[in-house]
Each structure stands twice: as structure tokens, then as C-alpha cells.
Amino acid sequence: MALRKPPLREEHAARGAKFTEFGGWDMPVEFDSIRAEHAAVREAVGAFDVSHMGEVVVAGPDATALMQRLTTNDVTRLDPGDSQYAAITDEDGVILDDTVVYRLPDATDADDAATGTTRYLFIPNAGHDVEMHDRWVTHRDRWDLDATVEDRTEDWAMFAVQGPDAADLVGDAADVLDADADGGGGTAVEDVRDLSKFQATYATVAGARCWVARTGYTGEDGFEVLAPWDDATEVWSAFVAGGDGEGAEGADEASGDTAATPCGLGARDTLRLEMGYLLSGQDFDPEDDPRNPYEAGIGFTVKLDTEFVGRDALARVNEDGPDERFVGIRLLERGVPRHGYDVVDTDGHVVGAVTSGTMSPTLGEPIALGYLPVEHADPGTRVGVVVRGSEKRAEVTTTPFIDG
Amino acid sequence: MSFDVPDDLRYLESHEWTQTGDSSVRVGISDFAQDELGDVVFVELPDEGDTIEKDAEFGVVESIKAVSDLYAPVSGEVVAVNEALFDEPELVNDDPYGDGWMLEVDPSDPDEFDDLLSADEYRDQIE
């Protein structure tokens, strides 16, 4: 099957990026050095092309009811321009995907919906957009709800601009669209610098109408910018200096010392791993490693006082307590923990497995994430990680691994 | 992009290099290989006194994104191990033919060098 390509595939290649398949997409994994890209995000600002993330728009009189019944969090708490992290679970409470749900401003004439319509945008993980779109359509029809569901994944590029300098860079590049203007709306801020975490607004970047959100998955301050697919080059160039001295023609190029370092999925992975954030398909997978939100450490996304698919199963888990917990593991010896490596107790019995692991670029130490039975899950518990047949001493720890 | 391929070394298709000679030849991985791997964060090497066998695995090099087995370009006894790599594995990236060397080996069969790729042949392979 042919890989799906982000709109800037050729620009990234011309810049010398290396690519990897992720969720059916051909994505840049590394531009120069994962270590250097990681450091840029922790210390300055980096920009990621995450156009492989899905975008599904749900609109209509019953949009709120449909979103509420298919996500674990409480969407009725969202005003236009707010967002929340949520899990999407099946009847057994197993996580199918994790997502961010944005409440868009009610539709104006600039949108493909009747003026005043309630609208949501949610972001399935790479390769899950079709499955989630179909899940929403199926349940809408089953429950006879009045809402449209559109997979807009290949209409919108998505860039994550992350790091302590992101606010200045994105703040200078983005002009917030007046809330009262056609096509405007969102949170009533005049500058994207004034957005709170998880708030978003429409703004123009390089002349394109974008959705600019104070969200991200690196543990740093930053923004995620949804840009029209056809304007992707200009918007990316507003954040990242031209490769090899050649910027995009006519674009409002990022200049001088405030430009973001282009970053690939390799650094995105090490950054989220240092924070202990879940990666869909790796730290949970409904087929290979089914997990519920409580054991995965995202019980805070579950609002049992709402009605959603999986609620009753999760109410039972909440009452009994999960059997296993998602923990951080720090190796005390040299070695690199990787997905699938066994975790053993002090008697050498296998008690779990590494779901994600790396050499932390920030700490210079090997770190891992995985599920352990609750009796082995307390911070400070000694365990071992089996690296190519050799047991490395390790210790359970809290996440994030780094100071926030 | 062009990669450094010193003329005086011999190469395996799996991107290891070796010096030639009767004793204490150095072994490492090529500039192309370190670039493909990206930031090297860990190396696992045999001990001094161990013997390695041509085309067999002798260790592992890991970058942030990949694990890669190392194959011996030559058979013989390991007479030195570059222990600096345990604390500074990035030397493999910075200087793959110099400070990033991995082993010194006393070759048991110098004829084996004839089976290896010349610099020109290796250049053809990676281009």
C-alpha cells in the first residue's frame, strides 16, 4: 500500500531529512540529529510536521451528544476555543485511541456548515482517522443523532511549534482573527501569547487562516497549528528558516535567531518519553496490548458522571482498582531499553514488558515506560530489564523523568 | 551527501571497516553507517582476549532510533577495546575512522582481507 505523504514531503527531503513509516505515513524521523533537535525543543524552539495526525470535524445540533458518548472526558465543559485530552474507549473500557477534542467556534459563513452550528474538531492518532470517522458515523446512525462527521485529515496540515521560545515565534507570526469577524472566533484573546494551555483560536499565519492551539506533546510550552493543506509551505516557512539558504518563494520567512529548528518524529518520541506520555499503538494497542485509562495513567480523562461507551466497565475498574499500572523505569546499568523487552522482578520472574524506551537525551540515562502489576509498581521498587538476554538492574520511578 | 571512505581501509557490505596488516588492526564502522544510524548512544563490544570470527556478530551499536549488530571484517584475537566509547559513544559519530574505532584485532588469517571490499567497491555500494 502506498504511504500517505505530508504536504511538505519534498521540502523535507530537500532539506536532507530521513524518513520513516508511521501510521501509514511517510514522515521525517530526523533532519540532522535527534539529540540536537531534542535539545532545541527543551532549550529554544523546534517545529515538527505532524500532518499525519488526523482531523475529524463533528458539527450539528447533536454534535455535543455524539462527542460526549464516544469520548471519556466531559465535552460540555468546553466553551468555544477550549480543548481537552480524552480517551476513546470500547464497551470494555479498552482504549482505542487517545485524542485532543477542540470545541471550534460556532460556524460562520466561512465554514462548511450552517451559521451558528456547534462544532468540534478532534485529533485521532496517525492512521486512525478513517477508523474513528467510521466509528463516529456508525454510532451517529445507531443513535439517530443529527450531526455531520467529516474526515479532514488531508485538508489540514499540522505543525507543532514547541519550546520555551515558541510563544515569541508563534506570537510574532500569528495575527488573531477578531472573534466577531467572519471566519474568526475562538477564545477572546488578541495575541496567541495570551492563550492559556489547551486554549485555541483562529489566526492568520503567512496569510492563511489557521487554527492555533496552546497544546503539544513535548512537555514544553508551545503551539499546534492547523494550516490549510495548500498553504502548508508558507505557514511552515513562517516558523522555520529556509533549508540550505533557500526559503519558500514569497513566503513570510522566519528570520534570524527566532527561527525554529526543524524536528522529526525521533525527537518527538524522546521528548514525550521523558514526560511519560503515552504513544498510541505502542504504549497501548486494542489488539496487541489492550489497556484501560486507569492502568494507563490517564484516569483523569475519565468522567464517570457522563454517559459514554465503556463507562460501566470503567466504573468497575475504578472501584476495584487496576491490576497493573503504567510506570517509569530507570536503568541503573548501561543499556538501552526498547519496546518488548521483558521486565523481571528481583527473583528473575517476568512481571511485565517495556512499552517504550530510549536513552534520554536530557538525562543521558536509559529510561523506559511499561506496565507492572501494582505490587511492583511503587516508585523505588527494584526490577530488571532484560536486554539481549542480559538482565540490567533498574528501578521503578515516577514520571515525568525530567523536572517540568 | 558524500561520505568519507578512506582508501587504505577494507570494508564489509554491512559497513564495518578494518585496517590491513599482520597485527593490531583497528576495526570500526564507516562514516555512511554512523550517519544512517544517527546519534549513537550505546556500544556493546567483546572483551580483550576474546576471539572474533569473520562475518560473525561481535557486538552491537545502538542509536536513539535503531539497534544494529556489528559483524567482524576479520578473524582473530581482540587485543584492545576502545573503552572510551562506553562513556562517549558519540565518538562513533564524530570520528568514525579515528577516535570512534572499536577494536584492535590480531588477524589469524591475513588472506581474509582479500575477500573484503576495497574503498572503490564500497563507495559503489553506498552511492
Q: Would you give an account of this structure?
A:
The complex is a heterodimer of chains A (404) and B (127). Chain A has 404 residues and is of the alpha+beta class. Among the domains of chain A are: 163 residues, Gyrase A, domain 2 (2-Layer Sandwich), CATH 3.30.1360; 91 residues, Alpha-Beta Plaits, CATH 3.30.70.1400. Chain A contains 8 helices and 20 strands. In chain A, strands 10-11-12-13-9-3-14 form a 7-stranded mixed β-sheet, sandwiched between helices. Chain A has a 6-stranded antiparallel barrel with strand order 15-18-17-16-19-20. Chain A has a 5-stranded antiparallel β-sheet with strand order 5-6-7-4-8, covered by helices on one side. The longest helix of chain A has 15 residues. About 2% of the residues of chain A have low confidence. By secondary structure, chain B is of the alpha+beta class. Chain B has one domain: OB fold (Dihydrolipoamide Acetyltransferase, E2P). In chain B, 18% of the residues lie in helices and 31% in strands. Chain B is built from 4 helices and 9 strands, in the order E-E-E-H-E-E-E-E-E-H-H-E-H. Chain B has a 6-stranded antiparallel β-sheet. A 3-stranded antiparallel β-sheet of chain B has the order 4-6-7. The longest helix of chain B has 8 residues. Chain B is globular and about 35 Å long. The mean pLDDT of chain B is 96. Chain B: The glycine cleavage system is composed of four proteins: P, T, L and H. Chain B: The glycine cleavage system catalyzes the degradation of glycine. The H protein shuttles the methylamine group of glycine from the P protein to the T protein.
